[in-house]
Task: structure prediction
Amino acid sequence: MALITVRFYSLWRSYLGIDNTTLQADHIDDALTQLEEKFGYRLREKLETAGIHLDGKIQDYSLILLNGIALRNLKGTTLKEGDVLHIFPPAIGG
Amino acid sequence: MESNTADKDIGRYIAESAESYLAPDGQRLSVISLKTVASISRSKRIPAKEVEITALKQGIIPWRYLRNIGTISLDGQIKLLRSTVAVVGAGGLGGTIIELLARQGVGHLIITDNDCFTERDLNRQIMSRESNLGEYKVTVAAKRAGEINSATTVTTFRERLTGENAQNLLSGAQVVVDGLDNLPSRLAVEQACRQLAIPYVYASIAGFSGQLMTIFPEDVGLPSVYGSSNAIPEQGIETKIGNPPATPAIIAALQVQEVVKIITGIGTPIRNQILLVDTRECAIDRIELGR
Result:
């Protein structure tokens, strides 16, 4: 199992009350499942309290990068020791 | 030959019109007033921008740029006056970007936007006023830029930027600055900038936070953050949490600093990284982007 770091930014960091955490996972899907189990309910609960309703899992309403690359652009989905997942809400306004 | 003679003639005229100013640090500077620049521009029939450039080349500082020069130098101010910057979108980010670029002394602005001001814009779009609701943003922005700096010329396009027209609308610019409010248009701008081989200063906002990145043609850019598939989101969490007034002002100011750095060659633009600014927690983070 690879030990990876997960870093939260922006509103997700505020709502979860943590900067980062670690997970043990071999595959990106394992890591996302663990993230949802650990933080999904808490994040949605905080969002609901703030009047924001978002459907789905964390990965459905977040931007997630693995080592600086969007998950949609990853060539492989196997994790290695020291990998970093960056997670933050999409801010697209101007 | 004739042109050189004319330049020398204007240069001499400017030198004769310059005033002496004792700066607080004891340095004696030659300066020239807005009124004198305007008068020379009228009498010699040359644009105010050219008068200012000719003055700066002789070490004579237009008063209006006095507080710029220590940071960017005479040469940097000349580069800015000679530059063309395209601002895409004249709303929250775009309005402040235009205001600051005109004050900075950018010589030519290309502004693209197809919207009119509405009451919803009054909280954050610096160009909007109760008295100009219903007016086109580009018209208001061009007028405002001209009122701030008569040396700044403005070209406006009252159009929505698309993949089809992006290259035409941005052609001639040295840098493109993002004042957009949706991702498909940003991807169209990024692609056009790559084709035109010019840098693009991307930014977007939501609530108390914003993000920023300068993308040169060879840089990784938006696909590293949003992915390059068709499943990209058009809008983000700002549709739920809105944009309070200070957020676009803060992020637009950072974008303008990027433009100044790119044009003058001073400092280091934020490239191949995304800057995440979270004013709620006073946190600024950078994420290195990969391919």
